[in-house]
């Protein structure tokens, strides 16, 4: 007998599918069908399943499996004597309220003439203590309708296990449907085991997404949303509050692993990262809690997502309190978001303050509070659960008449007897608080789901209506086929007595959750407040009502790297999550006016980035103006040159009859001074905003002025050479070819050639104002573009040709005997002139924008000053400072 119990316990906890094969096989003698399943519950095992049961009689019995106790006893197997189970301990209030919500729903249904008329529902409830093997034993007990004892003997033959069982039948009814209050793992085991029997299961707590698979769990239904929905809500909250760096603490089961999987899928495209993912195992909870607490302490994540049972969270919070980690914002799953044991634990209040959680939706059940307050052990002598609650609540012992009651209440001998006047009418405890029912309301809904499925199955077709495949006959409450009931449950669609629409989407119901917040109350304790609700895909959240872990309404920040400000872009760090990045300033000409952007965008061609690289602004037009420093310097130099030239002109005009002025061809000297003045003044045309006429005038004025200047120098040099050559015998007629008329004609001829070149150039392809956008900068260079480089080259080439010719002639005449030979000054001045303009070409080409204009002006001024100083400075020196040398005798002397 004990060996059978041992094998059943071991197999059900490790391999329910193997257990099913053994039990459904022909060697077990299991009878499947309308008669249900007969299982054995052995009194010699001491299992709580047969002792802690609650039942009523009726036409149809609904089964209930609840985890009423959370501390199952250890199983001591020494293979010497039969195993023995001690009673479970740690009565839980929430499952107890859910159990009574099932009873209350049955009372409502039985008193409702429109729902299952003429049929009375009853119930049979067992406590599984949260153990999978006991839940499986209880399910078979409910399905088989067994309440008896049995004798079993295991026999091992040829490596096969044969269970020879002798049945002692009782009159207990089998149940067509089971209301399950166990966790998801237990629900999976039960559904897989009862699936081949088509026994429907309606769970109000199993939320694992895996149970939505109709292929694997065709007989499973639930009145709690799938965990996929709450994981999605968590992801939406993270995205909404810009939490990009989140830690995760998970239970070591499908509840935690599937939740984080869905969470990561939802945040994948939203820039949210999981900083760490730690596991809490129930078997090693103390060691795991210490490890996870240290991880949270050293992590930069300020928001921690926790998907595990509330008892595990209590241990974790205790370790966090020990190391004084009180500044983390916790996101709670529905498994602990409404845990009052945590909420009212003063030692954990600093750690738990500000918890934001997803909770099973709350609802009220009218009349349920009155039902609970009427409960009394004297009216329910067989209700051992109420007896245990009563003794714990009032601290007294009820009369013990049964040995099993004594076993269930080990403290009865040490506490006084109850007076009988104890009542729940005035008790303000969690048990009687029905203002926010969650799990209990789901259990209430599960009973109505079963009732409406039975109502649909037992309903007769209307007289005169055409028969259908599903409603051709009336079913009897004593002849219910589980498979037919399963078909009707799939189609359930009804309105609850409180006006709520209910229907299934496969195995699930539409997602409805409450969002709760743990806030500090005026008395210093923590209270739970509803601050939002999720209905389907609509999230309604009152952000202003949230009190965060910091104690303020300011949303906490949890990021690996602070969001990049406008003007910068994100650059991911190699080998690190995408949430960890550096902020790189946008390059010149690129902008970014968004926070946290991955890239900068280039400004349009006529725009440039502002100093902060947050906006594109029109480029400033840049040209050599009179207002800037360089423009002022060049203007001053040009005007000064023109003034000096004018002064020299006046001096020469005043001393025009002196030998120095007359000896050096005064007419050409005056013309040369005039041309130099034009050269200085033409530099001013290059300064200022370019226009159509200024672009045309500046190059023409420059080219003609310098040709006039060089022509005068060249003619003067030729005259000097002709004068000395004519003094030789036989050369007396040479000077007649270089008289005054010929000199004027030569200057005019040379100048006219340049005029013709400029006229042709300006007529065919003149320089025009141009906005230079090719240079990527904050300014647009406004300049005179050379539409024809050939024209400009010809102008410069002609000037260069005359200058070189003049330099050659002056060089030949530099040593002619004379006290004042002007040729040597012309030679020196032309050397300076040629040097300046040779250096001008590469400098002009390589200078950008207005600087090329400045280079040209500098070349004009430098060459003009060179000519002015080299040619006229010595003469002015003699005229003004050495008048004694300004005589014909001195000039003619050798």
Give structural notes.
This protein has 894 residues and is an alpha/beta fold. It folds into four domains: 2-222, Response regulator (Rossmann fold, 3-Layer(aba) Sandwich), CATH 3.40.50; 228-363 and 511-545, Response regulator (Rossmann fold); 568-618, no CATH class; 629-886, Rhopdopsin 7-helix transmembrane proteins. 43% of the residues lie in helices and 16% in strands. The strands form nine sheets. It has an eight-stranded mixed β-sheet, sandwiched between helices. A hairpin with a 6-residue loop joins strand 28 and strand 29. Helix 18 runs parallel beside helix 25. The relative contact order is 0.07. Residues 1-48, 147-171, 401-412 and 463-472 have low confidence and may be disordered.
What's this, in brief?
The chain has 894 residues and is of the alpha/beta class. 43% of the residues lie in helices and 16% in strands. Strand 18 (512-520) and strand 19 form a beta hairpin.
* CATH topology heading of the largest domain: Rhopdopsin 7-helix transmembrane proteins
Rounded mean pLDDT score:
81
User: Which second-level CATH architecture of the largest domain applies?
Assistant: Up-down Bundle
Tally of helical segments: 26
- Percent of residues in helices: 40-55%
Q: Mind describing the biggest β-sheet?
A: 8 strands, mixed
Class from helix and strand fractions = alpha/beta
| Spatial separation of the terminal alpha carbons | 153 Å
Spans with pLDDT under 50 lasting ≥5 residues? 1-48, 147-171, 401-412, 463-472
Task: Give the number of DSSP strands.
Answer: 29
> How much of the sequence is in beta strands?
15-25%
């Amino acid at each position: 007998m004990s060996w059978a119990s041992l094998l059943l316990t071991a197999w059900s906890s490790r391999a329910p599918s193997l257990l099913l094969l053994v039990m459904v096989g022909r060697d077990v003698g299991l009878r499947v069908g309308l008669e249900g399943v007969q299982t054995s519950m052995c009194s010699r095992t001491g299992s709580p399943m047969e002792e802690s049961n609650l039942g009523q009689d009726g036409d149809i019995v609904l089964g209930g499996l609840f985890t009423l106790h959370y501390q199952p006893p250890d199983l001591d197997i020494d293979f010497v004597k039969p195993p023995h189970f001690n009673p479970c301990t740690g009565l839980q209030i929430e499952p107890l309220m859910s159990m009574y919500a099932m009873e209350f729903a049955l009372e409502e249904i039985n008193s409702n003439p429109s729902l299952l008329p003429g049929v009375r529902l009853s119930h049979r409830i067992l406590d599984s203590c949260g153990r999978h093997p006991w839940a499986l034993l209880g399910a078979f007990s409910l399905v088989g309708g067994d309440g008896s004892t049995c004798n079993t003997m295991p026999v091992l033959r040829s490596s096969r296990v044969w269970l020879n069982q002798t049945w002692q039948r009782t009159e207990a009814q089998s149940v067509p449907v089971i209301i399950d209050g166990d966790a998801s793992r237990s629900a999976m085991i039960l559904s897989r085991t009862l699936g081949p029997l088509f026994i429907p299961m309606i769970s109000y707590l199993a939320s694992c997404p895996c149970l939505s698979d109709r292929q694997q769990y065709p007989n499973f239904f639930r009145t709690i949303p799938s965990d996929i929905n709450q994981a999605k809500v968590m992801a939406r909250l993270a995205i909404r509050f810009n939490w990009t760096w989140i830690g995760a603490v998970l239970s070591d089961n499908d509840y935690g692993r599937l939740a984080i999987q869905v969470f990561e899928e939802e945040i994948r495209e939203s820039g949210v990262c999981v900083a760490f993912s730690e596991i809490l195992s129930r078997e090693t909870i103390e060691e795991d809690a210490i490890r996870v607490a240290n991880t949270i302490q050293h992590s930069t994540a300020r928001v921690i997502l926790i998907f595990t049972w509330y008892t595990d969270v209590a241990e974790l919070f205790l370790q966090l309190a020990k190391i004084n980690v009180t500044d983390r914002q916790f996101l709670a799953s529905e498994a602990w978001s409404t845990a009052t044991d945590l909420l009212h634990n003063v030692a954990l209040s600093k750690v738990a303050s500000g918890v934001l959680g997803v909770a099973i939706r709350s609802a009220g059940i009218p009349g349920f509070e009155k039902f609970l307050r009427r409960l009394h052990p004297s009216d329910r002598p067989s209700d051992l659960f109420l007896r245990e609650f009563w003794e714990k609540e009032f601290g007294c012992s009820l009369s013990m008449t049964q040995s099993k009651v004594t076993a269930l209440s080990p403290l009865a001998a040490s506490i006084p007897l109850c007076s009988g006047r104890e009542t729940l009418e005035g008790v303000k405890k969690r048990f009687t608080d029905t203002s926010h029912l969650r799990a209990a309301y789901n259990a209430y809904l599960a009973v109505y789901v079963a009732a409406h499925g039975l109502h649909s199955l037992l309903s007769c077709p209307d007289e005169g209506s055409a028969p259908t495949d599903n409603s051709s006959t009336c079913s009897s409450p004593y002849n219910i086929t589980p498979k037919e009931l399963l078909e009707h449950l799939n189609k359930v669609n009804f309105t609850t007595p409180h006006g709520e629409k209910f229907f299934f989407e496969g195995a699930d119901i539409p997602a409805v959750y409450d969002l709760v917040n743990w806030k500090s109350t005026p008395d210093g304790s923590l209270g739970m407040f509803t601050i939002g609700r999720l209905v389907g895909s609509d999230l309604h959240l009152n952000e202003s009502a949230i009190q965060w872990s910091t104690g303020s309404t300011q949303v906490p920040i949890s990021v690996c790297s602070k969001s990049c400000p406008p003007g910068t872009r994100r650059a991911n760090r190699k080998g690190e999550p995408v949430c960890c990045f550096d902020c790189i300033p946008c390059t010149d000409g690129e902008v970014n006016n968004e926070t946290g952007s991955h890239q900068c965008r280039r400004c349009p061609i006529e725009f440039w980035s502002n100093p902060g690289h947050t906006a594109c602004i029109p480029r400033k037009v840049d040209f050599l103006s009179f207002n800037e420093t360089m423009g002022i310097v060049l203007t001053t130099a040009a005007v000064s040159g023109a003034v000096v030239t004018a002064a020299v002109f006046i001096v020469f005009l005043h001393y025009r009859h002196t030998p120095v002025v007359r000896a050096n061809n005064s007419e050409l000297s005056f013309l040369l001074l005039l041309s130099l003045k034009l050269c200085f003044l033409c530099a001013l045309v290059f300064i200022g905003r370019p226009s159509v006429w200024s672009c045309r005038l500046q190059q023409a004025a420059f080219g003609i002025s310098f040709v006039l200047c060089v022509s005068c120098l060249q003619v003067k040099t030729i005259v000097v050479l002709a004068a000395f050559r004519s003094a030789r015998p036989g050369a007396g007629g040479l000077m007649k070819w270089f008289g005054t008329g010929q000199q004027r004609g030569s200057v005019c001829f040379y100048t006219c050639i340049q005029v013709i070149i400029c006229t042709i150039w300006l007529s065919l392809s003149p320089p025009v104002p141009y906005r230079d956008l090719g240079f990527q900068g904050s300014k647009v260079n406004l300049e005179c573009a050379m539409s024809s480089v050939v024209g400009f080259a010809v102008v410069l080439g002609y000037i260069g040709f005359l200058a070189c010719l003049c330099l050659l002639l002056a060089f030949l005449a530099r040593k002619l005997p004379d006290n004042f030979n002007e040729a040597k000054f012309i030679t020196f001045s032309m050397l300076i002139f040629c040097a300046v303009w040779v250096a001008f070409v590469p400098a002009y080409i390589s200078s950008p924008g207005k600087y090329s204009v400045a280079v040209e002006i500098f070349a004009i001024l430098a060459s003009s000053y060179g000519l002015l100083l080299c040619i006229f400075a010595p003469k002015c020196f003699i005229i003004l400072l050495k008048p004694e040398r300004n005589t014909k005798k001195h000039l003619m002397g050798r």
